[in-house]
Write a structure and sequence with these properties.
This protein has 416 residues and is an alpha/beta fold. The protein has 17 helices and 18 strands. The strands form four sheets. It has a seven-stranded mixed β-sheet, with helices on both faces. A hairpin with a 2-residue loop joins strand 16 and strand 17. 50% of the residues are buried.
């Protein structure tokens, strides 16, 4: 029988266990992936603990009263494919949601690279959350297994949109509900009347945390052309203050690329953009980390980049922020509401009209702060994308549909 209070207690126990193992978890992610120690202790782990403790019937958001009132019921089995770049925070908010919703079986696949982490996380989850099983498996194999398993009612997967598109027909035929999260292409708008020093500091933090490899990282900065030179100067100054180095060093801001193909992609995009007239205001140099062969990129501020450059059109998991000046707010809105999309929009100094429109388009909006601000800790609990960022595929009234926008995962892992 579904007992939400007992499941809540189990999730709190898991959160406590994670907190007690902070250094062990950080060391494992440093060793497994080369993830910067600072990213784990200031980003991944706090986000995971926060998510696990928020799934509580006393919180209408994100628990949702419909689960208590019986308007929605749990699914039997769910599959969750964990991404490489944000493994722990994604694990907590997806497994936490599926478990809190009452799913009797939750099958979790971690990236093959997570060797030490797999042992730690498997022991923690399987000892505290009944019905949860954790393996290491390649995404293609795990997704295929889930889509061919008639007992799997919902599948969470994360990766490149092109990968999901290739699986669309198989997903449609399987009739499995699929929750897909892709790469972010997050925009920030900077208008008149803002404190440029504070704004630049917040943007640099939100663009280059985790070396730009978190889908929530800002990628394109839309700023009024009259303000662009002053903002760029401040952005470069703030970016140059970040440290690039060994992921084991607690003072390192930016560690190596977790996926070497993203480095190759970023270098190609920068080279192509330069051929189209783009310029580097700062950063972009590649640095080898220790003797491991891993490489990192110094945070790059790109100016004079054409709108149709791949660097703007196709998101990349790299520390690159592209500056896109505009002449009028309407011009900026046209670009912001393009199919490039994003999980959220961030605004500093926009008009009420702009804020209202972006709220309608994106669903989630950060006004005067970024995703990194503590006041926005709940943002990923109803994470959802606009444009090409993410979506849900499911059958509704006999039709295979694609739904975008914010969504509560706890509801996605339940049914009417």
């Amino acid at each position: 029988m579904y007992n939400p209070d007992r499941r809540t207690q189990a999730l709190h126990t898991l959160a406590d266990l994670f907190a007690e193992q902070t250094e062990t978890i950080a060391s494992a992610l440093v060793n497994d992936l080369g993830m910067a120690h600072r990213v784990v202790t200031e980003g991944e782990l706090p986000a995971a603990i926060h998510a696990l403790t928020r799934f509580d019937p006393s919180n209408p958001f994100p628990f949702d009263p419909s689960l208590i009132e019986g308007d929605r019921t749990p699914m039997s089995t769910s599959g969750i494919c964990i991404p490489l770049h944000t493994p722990l925070s994604t694990l907590a908010r997806t497994v936490g949601a599926a478990f809190a919703a009452g799913n009797t079986q939750v099958q979790v696949a971690l990236p093959e690279q997570l060797k030490q982490s797999h042992t730690i996380w498997k022991d923690a989850l399987e000892s505290t959350l009944p019905g949860v099983s954790v393996t290491r498996e390649e995404p293609d194999s795990f997704v295929d297994t889930c889509l061919n398993d008639p007992y799997v009612s919902a599948l969470f997967m994360s990766g490149k949109a092109e990968w999901a598109a290739q699986l669309r027909e198989q997903i449609r035929e399987s009739e499995t509900k699929v929750i897909f999260e892709g790469e972010g292409n997050e925009p920030v708008f900077v208008g008149f009347g803002v404190d440029l020093d504070a704004t630049a500091s917040a943007i640099v933090d939100a663009a280059f945390f985790h070396g730009g490899q978190d889908p929530a990282c800002l990628k394109r900065c839309h700023v009024h052309e009259s303000m662009a030179p002053d903002l760029i100067e401040r952005l470069v100054t703030n970016a140059q203050a970040l440290s690039v180095g060994s992921p084991a060093d607690p003072l390192t801001h930016i560690g190596p690329f977790l996926d070497s193909t993203e480095l190759e992609r970023a270098q190609k995009q920068l080279a192509d953009a330069k051929e189209l007239g783009a310029r580097l205001a700062g950063g972009g140099l590649i640095q080898e980390i220790d003797d491991s062969g891993a490489e990192a990129m110094w945070p790059a501020i790109v100016t004079h980049c054409p709108w149709d450059a791949e660097l703007v059109q196709q998101p990349t998991a790299a520390p690159i922020l592209t500056i896109l000046p505009f002449k009028s707010e309407e011009e900026a809105l046209t670009q912001l509401e393009s199919p490039l999309g994003g999980y959220t929009a961030t605004v500093f100094g926009g008009s009420q009209t702009l804020i209202a429109r972006l709220t309608r388009s994106f669903g989630n909006l950060f006004n005067g702060s970024t995703w990194r601000h503590p006041s926005n800790a709940d943002a990923r609990l109803d994470w959802g994308g606009y444009g090409r960022t993410s979506w849900v595929w499911e059958w509704v009234d006999g039709k295979f549909t694609q739904r975008t926008g914010p969504r509560l995962l706890i509801l996605e892992f339940s049914k009417e």
